[in-house]
């Protein structure tokens, strides 16, 4: 209703719809990240089809989302889509190639070193080489800083764990006042978020040791929400008021078998804990964003069945990953959710600016004023205009003076028309009412016959009913006070109240 009214009055689209914040959160999950990419491909392909229908150019994720955050596998994808500004098709191709290069050969058959520490099962140098290969293919220096001080439309961050404090760390492609910049290269940030326990060696950056952020942030939806609050939120404004679309994408629900075949069995309990935390984060986020979910502003996509038996390193099962994800997306429920997601994203025109909160606040104030003043002017006058009313020049001049006195003031004006009975006071007031209706179509006109207290009370009730005055229908005793309060509210349009036949001042 509010948006329809705003469109009719030429206010344009809601800033939330055109420039509101779009967020993308990407879970970790080893090679199952390929499922994430197939989900994103479905969304982006459909979105660009809709854009093409209205003559708009195709867009990449970095041109739609204002912030992309990921952990582990999701972190690598976030870097490729956000920092390297790749499209989804190129990202899928690079991701498959990277997985084959990294997971095709294990570096150690023994799970532990002589001192009892876990050995990484895969060669970290191969992962580093694979990441640098992706950088080179995208014409980016292998030594390029993750935050190179270049302002981009899409901000990107990845999660890792500080091995000393076990706290979650965010490596950012942008600066953020009050938060540390670790000076990491793109390659270092990618290695840090991918350094899964027992899979790869931890990464050292500026004398700090980092591992992947799967413990505590495998589903980084909380981290994305927190980071968005740091960027666009404030103490007196809830982030949710500024979010246009929030998409969280998982890597499929894994089974115990997948953990035990992919990782040494004595670690399975720890990895099951990661899966539990991932689902808990999903559930908690759904509760916090319930209203946005209902309004098609929050979306969670995660394959429920078919990926349980795929281990974190089983890159050979890319066909199963693709078919299970397609089956999930073609289910009626998910197809409708993707459709709703596209309907939301297609309205995005430009990235969220620092002034978004001010623009949204100004728009809402203007809409509220429109809502207060948009009601059709009420006309509660029980008499027709007298066609025989004498419009003498002197009489016409007096009516002009009355009209000017009533409508040229910026505050309520009270006038009294008095004289002997039968000289035409009622006709003057009636003609004035019709003139007001004609010259001021937004002005409501009310007529009260003050013949007795009952007629006055009934007139108040009728007017209150016309204006839909809150509580007046059920509180006839105080209807006059309720009507007075309603008419005196800020933003109420002009009104003219004619009280006729006031012979008894006590009434």
UniProtKB/TrEMBL annotation:
Short sequence motif GXGXXG: positions: 28-33
Entry-linked Pfam families: NB-ARC (PF00931), Patatin (PF01734)
Ranges annotated as spanning the membrane: none
GO-annotated cellular components: membrane
Domain PNPLA span(s) in chain numbering: 24-225
Residue interval(s) of motif GXSXG: 70-74
Stored PANTHER family: CALCIUM-INDEPENDENT PHOSPHOLIPASE A2-GAMMA
Protein name as annotated: Acyl transferase/acyl hydrolase/lysophospholipase
Organism, scientific name: Clohesyomyces aquaticus
């Amino acid at each position: 209703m509010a948006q329809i009214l705003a469109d009719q009055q030429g206010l344009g689209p809601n800033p939330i719809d055109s420039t509101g914040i779009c967020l993308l959160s990407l879970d970790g999950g080893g090679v199952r990240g390929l499922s994430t990419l197939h989900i994103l491909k479905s969304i982006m392909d459909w979105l660009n089809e809709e854009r093409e229908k209205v003559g708009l150019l195709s867009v990449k994720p970095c041109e739609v989302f204002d912030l992309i955050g990921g952990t582990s596998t999701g972190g690598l994808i976030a870097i490729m889509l956000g920092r390297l500004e790749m499209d989804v098709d190129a990202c899928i191709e690079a991701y498959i190639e990277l997985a084959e290069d990294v997971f095709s050969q294990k570096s150690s058959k023994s799970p532990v070193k002589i001192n009892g520490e876990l050995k990484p099962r895969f060669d970290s140098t191969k992962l580093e080489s694979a990441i640098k290969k992706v950088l080179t293919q995208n014409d980016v220096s292998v030594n390029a800083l993750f935050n190179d001080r270049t302002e981009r439309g899409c901000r990107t961050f990845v999660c890792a764990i500080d091995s000393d404090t076990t706290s979650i760390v965010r490596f950012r492609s942008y600066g953020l006042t009050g938060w540390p910049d670790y000076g990491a290269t793109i390659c270092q940030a990618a290695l840090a978020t991918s350094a899964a326990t027992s899979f790869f060696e931890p990464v050292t950056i500026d004398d700090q040791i980092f591992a992947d952020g799967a413990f505590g942030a495998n589903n980084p939806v909380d981290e994305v929400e927190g980071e968005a609050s740091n960027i666009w939120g404030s103490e007196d404004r809830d982030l949710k008021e500024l979010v246009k679309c929030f998409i969280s994408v998982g890597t499929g629900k894994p089974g115990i078998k997948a953990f035990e075949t992919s990782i040494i069995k004595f670690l399975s309990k720890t990895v099951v804990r990661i899966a539990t935390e991932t689902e808990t984060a999903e559930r908690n986020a759904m509760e916090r964003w319930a209203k946005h979910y209902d309004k098609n502003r929050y979306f969670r996509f995660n394959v429920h069945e078919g990926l349980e038996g795929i281990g974190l390193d089983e890159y050979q099962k890319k066909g199963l990953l693709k078919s299970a994800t397609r089956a999930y997306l073609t289910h009626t429920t998910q197809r409708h959710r993707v459709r709703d997601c596209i309907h939301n994203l297609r309205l995005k025109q430009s990235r969220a600016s620092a002034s978004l909160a001010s623009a949204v606040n100004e728009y809402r104030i203007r809409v509220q004023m429109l809502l207060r003043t948009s009601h059709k002017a009420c006309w509660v006058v029980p008499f027709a205009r007298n066609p025989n009313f004498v419009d003498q020049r002197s009489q016409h001049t007096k009516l002009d003076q009355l009209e000017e006195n009533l409508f040229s003031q910026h505050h309520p004006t009270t006038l009294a028309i008095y004289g002997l009975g039968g000289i035409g006071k009622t006709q003057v007031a009636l003609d004035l009412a019709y003139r007001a209706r004609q010259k001021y179509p937004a002005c409501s006109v009310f007529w009260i016959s003050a013949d007795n207290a009952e007629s006055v009370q009934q007139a108040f009730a009728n007017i209150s009913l016309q204006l839909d005055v809150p509580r007046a229908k059920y509180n006839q005793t105080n209807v006059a006070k309720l009507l007075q309060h309603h008419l005196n509210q800020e933003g109420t349009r002009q009104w003219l109240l004619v009280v006729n036949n006031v012979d008894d001042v006590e009434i």
